[in-house]
Design a protein that fits this description.
The chain is α/β, with parallel strands linked by helices and 587 residues long. 20% of the residues lie in helices and 28% in strands. Strand 28 and strand 29 (412-413) form a beta hairpin.
Length: 587
C-alpha cells in the first residue's frame, strides 16, 4: 500500500510508502499528517543551540549562562540547582483533565516546571558550551563531545585546537571545515579524511601538503591537483600566504571554483547497504538519512548514530524503536520526546516507554512529563501505580483523538503528532530551525510560530580599531577591543586562545562575528533533500564538457544513463557522477 497525502502544514504532497505503514503499525502510531520536512522543522524548533544569555537562577539567584532569555515567562534553574535534590518535579504534577486538550495541559506544565539553564556535563572551563559533554577549555561549541581548546564548532567530537568547523571528528588544528574526519592541520576543506597540512581541499583521502585540491587519494605536494616537488610546494605557500585575509578569501574562492571542475560522488556513503541520503557510514536499510552513522532500519534521520528500527530523529543517538524524537538518546520505545536521555548510556541503562516528554533523565513509562529524573509511571508529572498508569494511558490517547488540539492556522494535533511549534519554549529564531529553514520574522508570525525579540540591556561601545589584514601585524591589544561584524553589525571579540590559534596556524583575524561565520557555513551545506537526476558522465567527458575522463567506463563512449537520488539538484553547477563512474575516475 502506498498513499499520497497533503501536508497539513505546508500543503505540499508527500508519499507514505508501504514499509512506512508497516513501521507505524509496529510501534502503534497513526501515519503522519505532516510531510518529512515539516516534521523535522517542528522537532528542531524546540532545539535552542546557540542563543545564549546571562540570567539569574530562580532558585539560588546566581547569574549563569543560560539558553533561557531573561524575558521568558517560565522558571529557569542553574545546572547545579536543576540537578540537585533542592526541588522535586513531582510538585508540579497535575491530574489529567478530560475537559481540556492534552497539548493545552502539557503546555501549562512545560511553562510551570523549571528548565535547566544549559545542557552540558563534565566540562572544565567551558561554561559557554551547549549540548556538549566532557569538554575542556572550550567556548561556544554546540552538540559535540570530548573536545579541548576549541571554539565556535558545531558537532565537533574528539577534537583539539579547532575553530569554526561543522561535523569535525577526531581531528586537531582545524579551521573553517565541513564534514572532515581524522585530520591534522586542515583549513577551509570539505569531506576530507585522514589528511594533514591540507588547505582549501575537497573529497581527499590520506593526503598531506595539498592546496586547492579535489578528489585526490594518497597524494603529497599537490596544488590544484597538480604534482609539485616539496621545494616547489613550499615556495608556493610563501608566495601565496593565507595569513592575509584578502589572500585567504581569494584562495578560497579559487579553490571552490576548481572543485566544480572535478566530478563529485552523488552522495557520501561508506560501508553501507541499501541506504539513501548523504554522509552515511556503516549503516543498513536507512533512507533519507543525513549525517548518520551505524543506523539500521531507519528513515528520516539527521545527525544520528547507533540507532535501529526508528523513524524521524534529529540530533539523536543510541536508541531503538523510537519515533519523532530529538536532542537526546539512550532510549527504547520513545515517541514524541525531546531532551530525554539515559543517565548512564555507557552501561546501557536506557530510558524507555516515554511518550510526549520533555527533559527526562533515566525514566520509564511516563506520558506528558517534564523534567523528571529516575521516575516510573507518571502522567503530567503526577505519580501513579503501574496498574493505574496502564488503565489511564489508553484513555488519554483516545481522548487526544476525540478532543484534538487546534493549533495556529488550523493545524490539528491528535495522538501521533509531535508537539505544536507554537508551544515551544523558544522563539523560532533562537532554534536550529532558523539555521536550516531560515524565515523572516513576518513569515514566522504568519505561520503562527513563536518569535523572540529579547535583546540584552548591555550596550557595547565599538572600539576605534581597524583589524590588520595580516595576522603578522596583529598585536595583543586586539584582545581588549570590541569589534563590529562587517555583515550583521553585531559586536564580537577575539578571545586569547583564538588569537594564539590564528598566530600558530598563520590565519587572518576574521572580520565577521562567530554567529555570522556559523551562518555562512550553513549556507555551504547541501540541502537535506534528495533529487532524482541522471549521471553527468557523457562518455569521454562530462555532459557540460568541463571534465575529461581519465579512464574508460563500463558504459563506454556513450552517456551514462544511471539514475540516482542525490542532494545535488540538477540546477547546481557541480559535476555529479554515479557511484560507478565516480569510482572509475577518483579511486
Amino acid at each position: 500500500m502506498k498513499e499520497e497525502r497533503t501536508c497539513q502544514n505546508c500543503k505540499n504532497l508527500f508519499i507514505i510508502e508501504d514499509e512506512d505503514f508497516q513501521f507505524y503499525k509496529k510501534i502503534g502510531v497513526p501515519a503522519p499528517t505532516f510531510c518529512p520536512e515539516c516534521r523535522e522543522i517542528r522537532r528542531i524548533a524546540f532545539r535552542n543551540e546557540r542563543a545564549l544569555y546571562k540570567r539569574k537562577c530562580d532558585l539560588c539567584g546566581a547569574v549563569v549562562v543560560s539558553r533561557v532569555s531573561p524575558d521568558k515567562p517560565y522558571p529557569m534553574y542553574c545546572k547545579e540547582c536543576w540537578w540537585s535534590d533542592k526541588w522535586d518535579p513531582l510538585d508540579y504534577g497535575k491530574t489529567y483533565d478530560f475537559s481540556r486538550t492534552f497539548f493545552e495541559q502539557f503546555s501549562n506544565l512545560l511553562y510551570m516546571t523549571p528548565h535547566v539553564s544549559i545542557f552540558n556535563s563534565n566540562t572544565v572551563n567551558s561554561d559557554w558550551v551547549n549540548q556538549e559533554t566532557d569538554d575542556k577549555n572550550c567556548y561556544l561549541n554546540v552538540g559535540g563531545h570530548y573536545n579541548e581548546d576549541s571554539a565556535y564548532n558545531t558537532y565537533e567530537v574528539y577534537g583539539k585546537n579547532s575553530f569554526d568547523n561543522f561535523w569535525f571528528l577526531n581531528s586537531d588544528f582545524g579551521y573553517d571545515n565541513i564534514y572532515c574526519k581524522r585530520c591534522y592541520k586542515i583549513v577551509a576543506s570539505h569531506d576530507c579524511f585522514d589528511c594533514r597540512d591540507t588547505f582549501f581541499s575537497y573529497d581527499c583521502r590520506n593526503c598531506s601538503n595539498i592546496f586547492g585540491c579535489a578528489g585526490l587519494r594518497n597524494k603529497k605536494f599537490n596544488i590544484f591537483n597538480k604534482q609539485y616537488s616539496k621545494d616547489e610546494y613550499e615556495t608556493f605557500l610563501k608566495n601565496n600566504s593565507i595569513s592575509s585575509l584578502k589572500s585567504y578569501e581569494e584562495q578560497k574562492r579559487k579553490s571552490y571554483d576548481f572543485w566544480n571542475l572535478i566530478p563529485r560522488r552523488f552522495a557520501s556513503i561508506n560501508k553501507s547497504v541499501d541506504v539513501s541520503g548523504d554522509n552515511i557510514d556503516e549503516s543498513k536499510n536507512a533512507h533519507y538519512c543525513f549525517a548518520a552513522e551505524k543506523v539500521e532500519n531507519a528513515k528520516f534521520f539527521y545527525i544520528a548514530g547507533w540507532i535501529r528500527d526508528s523513524y524521524d530523529l534529529t540530533s539523536h543517538g543510541a536508541a531503538e524503536l523510537t519515533y519523532e524524537c530529538s536532542s537526546g538518546g539512550g532510549e527504547y520505545d520513545a515517541k514524541f520526546v525531546t531532551y530525554c536521555m539515559s543517565g548512564d548510556p555507557l552501561k546501557q541503562m536506557h530510558s524507555s516507554h516515554l511518550y510526549y516528554c520533555f527533559a527526562l533523565v533515566s525514566c520509564e513509562y511516563c506520558f506528558g512529563c517534564v523534567g523528571l529524573r529516575n521516575k516510573q509511571y507518571c502522567i503530567l508529572n503526577k505519580q501513579y501505580t503501574k496498574g493505574e498508569y496502564d488503565v489511564l494511558v489508553p484513555k488519554l490517547i483516545e481522548h487526544m483523538n476525540t478532543m484534538p488540539y487546534e493549533g495556529k492556522n488550523g493545524r490539528m494535533y491528535r495522538y501521533g503528532e509531535f508537539f505544536p511549534i507554537e508551544i515551544s519554549p523558544f522563539g523560532y529564531n533562537e532554534t536550529a530551525a532558523m539555521d536550516y529553514y531560515s524565515l523572516t520574522k513576518e513569515q514566522v508570525l504568519q505561520r503562527g510560530y513563536p518569535w523572540c525579540d529579547y535583546e540584552s540591556e548591555i550596550k557595547h561601545e565599538f572600539s576605534d580599531y581597524a583589524i590588520p589584514d595580516d595576522i603578522k601585524d596583529v598585536g595583543d591589544e586586539i584582545l581588549e577591543k570590541v569589534l563590529k561584524c562587517e555583515v550583521s553589525g553585531k559586536p564580537y571579540r577575539i578571545i586569547p586562545m583564538e588569537l594564539q590559534f590564528y598566530r600558530r596556524m598563520g590565519l587572518p583575524i576574521p572580520t565577521k562575528s562567530p554567529l555570522q561565520r556559523h551562518k555562512d557555513r550553513m549556507v555551504r551545506l547541501l540541502p537535506r533533500k534528495l533529487f532524482k537526476r541522471t549521471c553527468d558522465c557523457g562518455g569521454k567527458v562530462s555532459t557540460n564538457g568541463v571534465y575529461v575522463n581519465t579512464r574508460e567506463h563500463q558504459h563506454g563512449e556513450k552517456k551514462c544513463t544511471s539514475e540516482m537520488e542525490t542532494p545535488y539538484s540538477s540546477e547546481r553547477p557541480e559535476i555529479v557522477y554515479c557511484e560507478e563512474c565516480y569510482q572509475a575516475e577518483i579511486y
